[in-house]
């Protein structure tokens, strides 16, 4: 059944009404308002409230709605909400979570709270959750699910269907079944569709396919992208000895990729990603997410100032040179950022690897030269008409040079970052823009001195 949608006007009305009821401490009124709201709208409302009011509203939700809303929160929001709930609500929500969601929540809670919650879990739920906690948050094993069905190669299709009927409700998914041999060694995977279409006495070994899997200790983003590329709804997760220990669903892999992309986008814009919605983020947290980058960029911009100081005498002789500085530095920065963004994405999705560095550099050289020639021709024409053809040549040659340099550097820097184990996104826009500004100015003044004889 499709979730009821709310218009922006209706949502604003409900949000304002809840704010008023909270101020009046009218719990009955709040309960009446939230009763008919969809989970999506409730998440949006709760994200706007402060932690205290958020916990009050959450305690008034129906149990089934409360769990759905909780599962839609970011891990950091879940941790904050848990600390604001009473014990009976906390235990109820924690027990109802899927093991992988439970594991991600643990990292957002104080150790004492986590230990208390685990003590309240049933033995079965603790056994399902414990394997994920053995891996760091950066590993894909932290995001796997331990709720899956496992079959043997000698099983018949009739036996497989009996297992699906008996235990399918307990599993994360039944559409792809894991085939293991002795010691849980992964041997293959079997689609439920193939089971349904085969004879009941057909053996699994004749129907199973070669498994595409990820290793639990792998980097989460890398493994998630590879899992999505398989086109499967679920991918097996194995340990270093190829023993099956979990599964990674397409939905979980997609969420990992989305978070990684958001992080890259934030860092490309010279800020740290927020771990919760904007309105739920404290002002001090917003400042912390930006101030470090501003300080780094301010210090790196000193390089540009020093370049201008080096060529101060040239600027005094030909004041017109200063008019084109914003154009040239902007073109250099944008060209470098375009190349860096393109290559960073190509690295993330596996289209290029470190061994392709030379090929990437040569490709970006050609791209930069081509763009530089197009922009340079326009620069020669416009600058020549208004400031003289000699000056037009300076602008044209500078555009060709800086586009070539910026594209090449922008393309290589993300790969250098990956070589040294840094985040390619960090090395993209902020640092590349500053570098290209400084190098572009040096090229500009050197060409001007050569052509104009200053």
TrEMBL record:
Alphabetized SUPFAM superfamilies for the sequence: CBS-domain pair, MgtE membrane domain-like, MgtE N-terminal domain-like
Keywords of this entry: CBS domain, Cell membrane, Magnesium, Membrane, Metal-binding, Transmembrane, Transmembrane helix, Transport
Protein name (record): Magnesium transporter MgtE
Pfam name, any one: CBS
CBS domain residues: 207-263
Family per similarity comment: Belongs to the SLC41A transporter family.
Keyword Repeat recorded: no
Membrane topology category: Multi-pass membrane protein
InterPro entries: CBS_dom, CBS_dom_sf, Mg_transptr_MgtE_intracell_dom, MgtE_N_sf, MgtE_transporter, SLC41_membr_dom, SLC41_membr_dom_sf
Main location: membrane
Compartment(s) where it occurs, according to its Swiss-Prot or TrEMBL record: Cell membrane; Membrane
Segments traversing the membrane: 291-308, 365-387, 393-413, 425-447
Subunit structure: Homodimer.
Annotated function: Acts as a magnesium transporter.
One annotated GO molecular function: magnesium ion transmembrane transporter activity
GO CC term (a single one): plasma membrane
């Amino acid at each position: 059944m499709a979730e009821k949608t709310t218009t922006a006007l209706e949502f604003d009305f409900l949000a304002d009404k809840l704010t008023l009821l909270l101020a009046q401490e009218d719990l009955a009124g709040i309960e009446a308002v939230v009763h008919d709201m969809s989970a999506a709208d409730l998440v949006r409302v709760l994200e706007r409230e402060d932690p205290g009011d958020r916990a009050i509203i959450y305690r008034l939700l129906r149990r089934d709605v409360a769990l759905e809303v909780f599962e839609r929160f970011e891990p950091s929001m879940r941790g904050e909400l848990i600390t604001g709930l009473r014990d009976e609500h906390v235990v109820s929500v924690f027990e109802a979570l899927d093991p992988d969601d439970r594991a991600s929540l643990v990292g957002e809670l104080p150790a004492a709270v986590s230990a208390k919650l685990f003590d309240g879990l049933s033995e079965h739920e603790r056994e399902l959750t414990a394997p994920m906690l053995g891996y760091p948050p950066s590993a894909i094993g932290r995001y796997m699910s331990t709720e899956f069905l496992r079959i043997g190669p000698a099983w018949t299709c009739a036996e497989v269907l009996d297992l699906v009927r008996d235990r399918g409700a307990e599993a994360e998914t039944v559409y792809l079944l894991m085939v293991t041999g002795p010691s849980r060694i992964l041997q293959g995977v079997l689609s439920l569709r193939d089971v349904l279409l085969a004879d009941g006495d057909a053996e699994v070994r004749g129907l199973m396919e070669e498994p595409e899997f990820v290793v639990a200790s792998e980097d989460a983003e890398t493994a998630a992208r590879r899992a999505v590329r398989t086109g499967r709804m679920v991918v097996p997760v194995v340990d270093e000895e190829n023993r099956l220990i979990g599964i990674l669903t397409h939905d979980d892999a997609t969420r990992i990729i989305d978070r990684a992309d958001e992080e890259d986008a934030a860092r490309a814009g010279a800020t740290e990603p927020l771990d919760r919605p904007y309105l739920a983020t404290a002002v001090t947290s917003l400042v912390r997410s930006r101030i470090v980058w501003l300080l780094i960029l301010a210090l790196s911009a000193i390089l540009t100032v020093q370049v201008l100081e080096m060529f101060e005498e040239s600027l005094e002789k030909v004041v017109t040179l200063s008019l084109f500085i914003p154009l040239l530095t902007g073109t250099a920065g944008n060209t470098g950022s375009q190349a860096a963004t393109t290559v960073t994405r190509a690295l993330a999705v596996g289209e290029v690897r470190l061994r392709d560095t030379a090929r990437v550099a040569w490709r970006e050289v050609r791209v930069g030269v081509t763009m530089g020639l197009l922009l340079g021709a326009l620069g020669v024409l416009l600058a020549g008409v208004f400031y003289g053809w000699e000056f037009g040549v300076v602008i044209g040659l500078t555009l060709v040079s800086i586009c070539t340099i910026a594209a090449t550097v922008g393309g290589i820097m993300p790969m250098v970052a990956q070589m040294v184990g840094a985040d390619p996104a960090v090395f993209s826009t902020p640092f590349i823009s500053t570098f290209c500004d400084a190098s572009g100015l040096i090229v500009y003044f050197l060409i001007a001195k050569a052509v104009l004889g200053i």
